[in-house]
Amino acid sequence: MRSFSVQVGRLFGVEVRLHLTFLILPLFVFWTESTVRSANGPRDLALVGIVLACVAAHEIGHMLMGRRYGLIPKAVILLPLCGVTVFDESRLETPASAAVAWKRDVRIALTGPLVNLVLAMIAAAIIFPLVPGANLWKWPFLQASNLPRSLVWANLYLAGINLLPAYPLDGGRILRAFFARTIEAAAATRRAVSISHALAMLLMVAGLFSDTWLTMVGVIIFSAAQLEERAVIFQSVLDNVRLEEVMLTDFATLSPADTLEDALDKAVHSLQDDFPVVRGSDMVGVISKQRILEALRLEGNGYVQAVMNKIFEVSVRQESLSSAFRKLTARNLSIIPVVEDQRLVGIVTLQNLMHSMALLAESRKLRRDGAES
Question: Looking at the structure, do residues 157 and 261 belong to the same domain, yes or no?
């Protein structure tokens, strides 16, 4: 998610990110508009803004419906024709049964298109009497030279496109939920993604012989499906890999009696960004390289004990990466010590965790692709 998107703000406390494929939309609008009339930068950008607002409204619908089922949205990724709302299912008190999950996922999926249909009707009801020149039924329906008409049809197009059986569009999510009733979620997602790839290729080819908008839709669906497949692989790694498989066993420690200058000297000669602070055989705190530098700049030389973080979480070898990741993010930590019989045997840092997840995800994908071929 973070590799191919940029944060643009927060909505109702939820991180909102813009996927890099969204850059396709303004380029495509400028190109298509320039082929029929001279380009108008402000109007073209306004059309892009309308589409972005409609996609955001669509995802707000998903977020609100998800909250009704106890699903907490962690992030929203906006793409040109759809969005991806990432929910945290780990906070559910009890996992949903297959039947309940099916009904929940279908209702959440249908809420997005329903929001766009309602917005289209409201916009049409306001524009029709107030803007006589809007010509709501005149082709082309989506055009920068007629923004009121585009507002209505952008919502209608988004509602219709998102009902296609292509994951992660809402129709594809319903298809995935249908598959998930009889097979595991990861396999259901892969099957839905395969169908999405086929449909995306069909749209791209069809667009070459008819409307170029179909080609753009195909490209975006293909990109979004790739994003979702990568997310599923990462989640599989999180759930199935134990900390003992990825923890660092060769690491440096600091003493609470070390001066900050001595600690910085050790940090310079280490690849670690975060250090356990150990007194004898007991771990008493953690400190980051950045915190050492900040303390030296603001307060001068002192002792590690005075500036170390005494609040930290510990894990055991058998815990999953998913458990460790939740501990790291829940308290905004950057390091988790791994203990055995109250003895420090390894550490997991956010830096090495992300690196290990990426490598494990790629190795699993390569093994799966090799098995399928």
Answer: no
Question: Is 274 contained in some domain?
Answer: yes
Say how many C-beta atoms besides its own lie within 10 A of residue 109's C-beta.
24
Residue 118 neighbours by CB distance under 10 Å: 14
HSE toward the beta carbon, residue 46, CA cutoff 13 A: 15
Tokens of 154: 């952008």
Q: What is the mean pLDDT for each group of 10 consecutive residues in the chain (373 residues)?
A: 75 83 80 67 86 91 89 83 73 62 89 96 92 82 85 93 89 90 82 90 86 81 78 70 82 90 87 84 85 90 89 83 74 80 80 69 66 63
* Three-state DSSP string of 114-165: HHHHHHHHHHHHHHHHHCHHHCCCCCCCCCCCCHHHHHHHHHHHHHHHCCCC
Q: Are residues 177 and 308 in the same domain?
A: no
Establish if 182 belongs to a structural domain: yes
Closest CA to 111 of 51, 60, 39, 61: 61
Answer whether 316's CB lies under 8 Å from 340's CB: yes
- Print the domain residue range for 55: 5-194
Let me know how long the chain is: 373
Residue 219 belongs to some domain of the structure: no
Full-model pTM: 0.69
Token pair 């458990």 is at which residue?
A: 323
Quote the number of domains for the chain: 2
- Boundary of a domain, candidates 162, 194, 226: 194
Query: Residue 168: is the preceding peptide bond cis (ω within 30°)?
Result: yes
- Strands (E) in the chain, as ranges, are 5-11, 14-19, 72-78, 83-88, 274-279, 282-288, 315-316, 335-340, 343-349
Domain with residue 337: its CATH number is 3.10.580.10
By the 8 A CB rule, do 195 and 166 touch? yes
Residues 167, 289, single domain; the answer is no
